[in-house]
Amino acid sequence: MKFTIVATVLLGLVLTPALSQFQFQDVKVNRRQYPRTITVNVGLGFQTLTVNRNALVAIIEANSAENAWTTVWNYGTGYIATKLAREGVCYVSAMDRVVMPALDSIAVLAEQTNNVKGESVLPRSIRYIVSRRHARELRTYGNDIFALCSGLPTFIAFEESQPEGGNQIFYNQDACYRLDVLNLLGIEYCRAGKV
C-alpha cells in the first residue's frame, strides 16, 4: 500500500509540470488565433476591424445608412482598397507604410481609441487622388482585395505627394470622400480634375 502511494505521489510530481506546461501552451495558442474581430465606436457609428495575421490583412467596415464603406489593407502585397457602397465603386492604391499603422499594432491601437468621447483629432491622414485609370488584374492585389472589388468599377488612386508620372494633379476639394478609420487614420479620396 505504501509503495502505491509513493508511486502515485512521484508520478504526480513528474507529470504536474509537464501537464501545466501543455495547458499554458494551449492557452497561448488560443489567444493568438486569427482572424480577430473587434468593434470600435467612431463618432456616431461603429466600425468593425478584422485582422487576419496569417494572411497579413486588416479589413475595416463602416455600416451606417448614409456612409457605408469597407477598406482592405493587405500588408503582404502592399496595397489597400476601399469600396464605397453608395457610389458602387472601388479604389486601389499603394500602401504608405510610414503613415499606416503596423498590422501587429492596429488592433491594440483601435482598442485604445475605442469609446473615445467627444470629437477626436486623427493623428495621421492620407489624401489619394483618384485617376481615371481602371485597375486591371485585381488578383495581383491579393484575394481579399479581389473579393472586395470584383464586379465593381475599380480605379487606381495615387497618394497626393506622389502623383502619377510626377505631374501635378489638380482635384476638386468638393469632390473628396473622407473616411475616419478607427479614430486612427483619415483617408481622403479626391477625384482628379482637368488641368
UniProtKB/TrEMBL annotation:
Pfam families: BRICHOS (PF04089). Keywords: Disulfide bond, Signal. Residues 63-157 form the BRICHOS domain. Residues 1-20 form the signal peptide. This is BRICHOS domain-containing protein.
